[in-house]
Amino acid sequence: MTTAKDIMHPGAHWITKSDTLQHAAQLMRQLNVGALPVGDETHDERLCGIITDRDIVVKCVAEGRDPAGCKASDVVEGTPRWIEADADIEDVLHEMESHRIRRLPVIENKRMVGMISEADLARHLPDNQLAEFAGHIYSPAPVKQ
């Protein structure tokens, strides 16, 4: 059985809710990543969400705000999703598809040990399974009535 830990990118560089978006962008550049987990500094790295390079651009820069003055807490929204390290790849796909997310933190013993991204899936999934995943993620969201 292929598990989340088998396909994840190991390591976890966090920022806190009080870190600036400028710091987040600099760290993303340094690590060559497009997203960082955001932790709550008062609760020993409790995952609060994920901030992406797109979040910084759309929710800060495009609104004319200064990334040096905006905090991660200003743009992080929603309920963070994650997966246990020993979860089967099918569970990983279900979590990402059902919530239409492109990055998924991997947790082991209540600590983040890595992240699964679309690139990780592309390296480990057969083409047909990857195409099905992309169809779920990139198809237009259903209209709620």
Keywords:
single chain, 145 residues, alpha/beta, CBS-domain, 4-stranded mixed sheet, 3-stranded mixed sheet, 6 helices, 7 strands, Diverse_CBS-Domain
Summarize the structure.
This is CBS domain-containing protein. Keywords: CBS domain. The chain contains six helices and seven strands, in the order H-E-E-H-E-E-H-E-H-E-E-H-H.
Report on the architecture of this protein.
With 145 residues, the protein is an alpha/beta fold. It has a single domain, classed as Roll (CBS-domain). 35% of the residues lie in helices and 22% in strands. The protein is built from six helices and seven strands. The strands form two sheets. A four-stranded mixed beta sheet has the order 1-7-6-5. The longest helix has 12 residues, at 127-138. The termini are far apart.
How do the strands of the widest beta sheet line up side by side?
1-7-6-5
Q: Multimeric state of these chains? A: single chain
Q: What proportion strand?
A: 15-25%
Which percent bin holds the helix content?
A: 25-40%
CATH architecture: Roll
Residue stretches low in confidence (pLDDT < 50, at least 5 long) are none
Judged by helices, strands and strand pairing, the structural class is alpha/beta
* Biggest sheet details: 4 strands, mixed
CATH class: Alpha Beta
Compute the number of strand runs.
7
Mean pLDDT: 89
Terminal-residue CA separation = 39 Å
Look at the structure and name the CATH superfamily. CBS-domain
Number of self-contained structural domains = 1
Structural Rg: 16 Å
Q: Given the C-alpha coordinates, what overall shape results?
A: globular
The SSE order reads HEEHEEHEHEEHH
What's the CATH topology name?
CBS-domain
| Continuous helix count | 6
InterPro entries: CBS_dom, CBS_dom_sf, Diverse_CBS-Domain
Organism: Streptomyces morookaense (Streptoverticillium morookaense)
Protein name: CBS domain-containing protein
Keywords: CBS domain
